Amino acid sequence: MSNSIETFSEAETQIEPPEAFRKAARISSREQYERLYRESLDAPDAFWKRELSELTFRSPWTELVEWKLPHAKWFKGATLNITESCLDRHLGTTTRDKVALLWEGESGATRSITYAELTRQVQSCTAALRSLGVQQGDRVAIYMGMVPEVVVAMLACARIGATHTVVFGGFAAESLRDRINDCGAKVVLTQDGAPRRGAPVPLKQTVDEALRSTPSVQHVVVYRHMKDTVQIQMQPGRDLDWAELLAKHAGTGSSAPANSEPAIVDAEHPLFILYTSGSTGKPKGILHTTAGYLAGVHVSTKYVFDLQPNDVYWCTADVGWVTGHSYLVYGPLSNGATCLIYEGAPNYPDWGRFWQIIDRHKVTILYTAPTAIRAFIKAGDEWVEKASLASLRLLGTVGEPINPEVWMWYHEKVGKRRCPIVDTWWQTETGAIMTVTLPGAVPAKPGVTGLPFFGVEPDVVTQDGQTVPPGEGGSFVQRRPWPSMLRTIWGDDERYRQQYFSDIPGYYFSGDGAYRDKDGYFRVVGRIDDVLNVSGHRIGTAEIESVLVAHPSVAEAAAVGRPDDLKGQALVAFVTLKPGFSASPSAAEDLRQQVAKEIGKFARPDEIRFADGLPKTRSGKIMRRLLKDIAAGREIKGDLSTLEDRSILDKLSK
Ligand code: WTA
Q1: pLDDT for 459-481, tens place per residue?
Q2: Between the chain's N and C termini, which has fewer beta carbons within 10 Å?
Q3: Pocket test residue of 427, 477, 486, 532 for ligand 1, highest count of atoms within 8 A of CB
Q4: Sign of the four-CA dihedral 202, 208, 212, 216
């Protein structure tokens, strides 16, 4: 940890839930929230039995949780297939003919797919993947854009009991390759291309590059989404066409395709691996398992978004991130919601796109990220003011701390002061929302995430695990296991232990700093480890540095974040060059390209600063806190006694 957290003043503003919202809400008072919260901690068996009773378990659990720090097993003895809760269970009800996925392409094309139709497609895809040899326990990589087929792909894997790993379409071939190799994926599901601001992102071509050195992959299934504009090469024997393959497994009449039945798996069966950045080394494969994850996302989707039968729910996150997994796919579908999926960029063809989508599809719940809201603010109020937005009743935010001014803009311009805002704090590792102000129950405070969700017990502690008094900053931890927690890091259990359970013994440490106010609300201030949050994307400084030092010109590199009005944090890389190389704008551009090529465009440094040397301790450790001050243009504060060569600072600050 390299940052200290100061003491914060209490947030002044409190926004009460609008009366009309409160009246109809699932949870409509702080007392009701407290009652359920206490039950979730003190009588968890009763809580989870009741809350999960509508879901499909093939056999019940015999023990709620086994906690052998740092390993948890939840719902021991239970068996299930998560797709029965997300699909099959709806078929015997009126939800059968309800729209499950409401899709709008970047081009403006729309599709709507009912629960019955989605089930049928998942069944075909299940049978198709089985015909390729995919079995329970295998891994399947998914590298697709925001099309309904990506949801079909994920659910088909889950139906087979094959563990999916979705790789965000913005990752470059090298990153895709590393992820495929780390988990040993047998099959890759992709699409020819995905439109981004009018131009195709060539997903299949990137898969071809990645697959030059991925020995585990036997087949690639390609969904032709942009047939007319994107040319692809199909490798005979390896590559198959999605539509042709699924057509062979379509089933006849009303009977399901052969081999499409769900595999009934153990509660702890691996559901998915999602790679994310840590403070050291390469991205880590966060493993989530079946029943606990389902429990977490089901209950949180229902109560945090106060889901009602007629809602049109829109989570704008890409399916390649955890928000897309939990709140675009599993949570909403297990609740039988209608989910909007928008394929393209928020500003295509202009900054009015989001607001038009809301009016066109009568979206009632919008869940998005502060970085998007800041971009809308910058684009000017005229775009949002042109729209009616009368259908909206609830707004949500996730991914980074939201500035109070941005919160107020969202509240006034988008929510028209009528819609509560839920500021949801959670992580890839937590699987589901951990802190929030339940929308009808308690007032919200701009910039403050809120109270613990059911079943979780967060705390703010000192380095040795002592709870700090309200108003004082500390490390944001979890005191007890929760159902949707990660189970391990794929293939590296020691790293799991080290990363999450060694800083503050006995507790799960998130990497974030926080403080708690007198009402018990948590304000999360951001990462206090070496992970950056750039436009809501998690980027490990160690990953950036290793790409930079791999460049022939670079001797040393240190990446840090600096505050940025639009992106939250911008990425600044300090670089020293090897003898014979000189600093220039084109050398800087080269290095930025190197990062784009190895990781993805979204991770390119915003600024490369060449230096003669980096500030180091006498033992040779780079002093990042000084670099952060320099990058931010702040006065350099704190203890400099361990700095080896002070003259370096003067040069760097210029
Ligand atoms: C940050 C995204 C403040 C935090 C779901 C966390 C937030 C990291 C919030 C996880 C929030 C997420 N307020 N900070 N409401 N939500 N964060 O794994 O630093 O992509 O550790 O999961 O985002 O990012 P991840």
Answers
A1: 999 999 999 999 999 999 999 99
A2: C
A3: 427
A4: positive
